[in-house]
Write a structure and sequence with these properties.
By secondary structure, this protein is mainly beta. It contains three helices and 18 strands. A hairpin with a 4-residue loop joins strand 9 and strand 10. About 1% of the residues have low confidence.
């Protein structure tokens, strides 16, 4: 049994923050476990697993970007109480199933209103916080995947074959105070392509569809980046909470040229620099029903004092590209990133991002 905990107190909001983690392994190979986690803390997104303690949280809070007037992009924080229980079962062939229940209570520190219209949460016409409970089951297939394993935790070392996962989520009203019914289906494919002698391409393709009338905080909110540190799994020129969608497709692709260019330059080759290019794309939308329910938060309708307005993606995709140098001192990576579509008027659509990752 592995148990972890932490506690803190916020002087500004006068709230206690704490977390608990429990992991019990029935077997290590193939892995068979049950995990229980609880968080009562601040996060920069609607999912603590994705945002709390990550690069995104540190970068977005401490080193926030500025607009063309020199003002910092407004900080978007949410107090999130999240409890989760997950059962995991893996088989030797590389197939695994994860099933669980997550309950979230979201209390945004920013403008948020959901129009209930008296049908979901009578009698109040609007709500500014929410509670949801979600049952999930995920099937994942990763043939010949390798891991770096410790006593309890492990890190994937990848596989040369595509990794496919399919997740079904069911929001159930009435469980642990949950206020919403919905269904969500999401397919993800991860793969790497060895293109000799030009290096390797790593890509992730995700597509999903949500059914039901819900606040945008329960929809797909693509990870943006309000800071200067590179977000490997998000959009580096997109602001956090800029888009929300109940139907979507996203592509993340990085091509690592390895030593193809720099190894041909005398003296520079001794530094072992490597070239990398990146591409990010988002396409999607929001049903008319959800646009009506979330109207007070959407672009063109949010109040003047709201620190941001949410947009719905469209058939015109959001696109960004980047080019950079990695393996600087075997740790650092520096990328120049351009936002190609859906450009912002009051912020630069070009930026420099710094990343850190150990290379071998």
């Amino acid at each position: 049994l592995l148990a972890k905990t932490y506690a803190a107190y916020g002087l500004e909001d006068e709230r206690f923050k704490y977390g608990l983690d429990f992991l019990y392994l029935f077997d290590k190979r193939p892995r068979h476990s049950i995990a229980v986690t609880f968080r009562n803390d601040i996060t920069t997104g609607s999912n603590i697993d994705e945002n709390f303690g990550s690069r995104g949280f540190f970068s977005d809070v401490v080193f926030r970007r500025t607009d063309e007037d020199g003002d910092q992009i407004p900080l978007k924080l949410m107090f999130l109480r999240e409890g989760r229980i997950e059962y995991f079962k893996e088989w030797d062939v590389g197939f695994s199933i994860t099933s669980g229940l997550v309950n979230r209570q979201m209390d945004p520190y920013f403008h948020f209103n959901y129009l209930t219209d008296g049908s979901d949460l009578a009698p109040d016409p609007t709500i500014s916080s929410l509670t949801s409970s979600e049952l999930t089951i995920t099937g994942r297939f990763a043939y010949q995947e390798k891991f770096l394993s410790g006593e309890f935790n492990r890190i994937s070392a990848g596989t040369k074959y595509p990794v496919v996962s399919l997740q079904y989520s069911l929001g159930v009203k009435g469980i642990l105070g949950s206020e919403f019914n919905y269904h969500k289906l999401e397919l993800t494919v991860d793969d790497n392509l060895n293109i000799k002698p030009l290096g390797k391409t790593f890509y992730t393709l995700t597509a999903g569809k949500q059914f039901g009338r819900v606040p945008y905080l329960l929809m797909e909110i693509p990870q943006g980046n309000d800071g200067y540190f590179l977000n490997y799994y998000g959009f580096n020129m997109m602001n956090q909470y800029e888009f929300a969608a109940d139907q979507y497709a996203m592509l993340f692709a990085d091509h690592h040229f390895e030593g193809f260019f720099f190894q041909k330059i005398p003296l520079i080759r001794e530094l072992n620099f490597r070239t990398v290019v990146s591409f990010r794309a988002l396409i999607g939308g929001m049903t008319d029903e959800n646009k009506a329910a979330n109207k007070p938060n959407l672009e063109g309708n949010a109040p003047d004092d709201a620190i941001f307005q949410v947009k719905s993606p469209s058939r015109i995709p959001y696109l960004e590209v980047g080019a950079g140098i990695e393996n600087i001192l075997r740790i650092f990576r520096v990328d120049a990133v351009w936002r190609l579509t859906k450009k912002l008027e009051n912020q630069s659509n070009f930026g420099i991002r710094l990343g850190m990752r150990v290379s071998f």
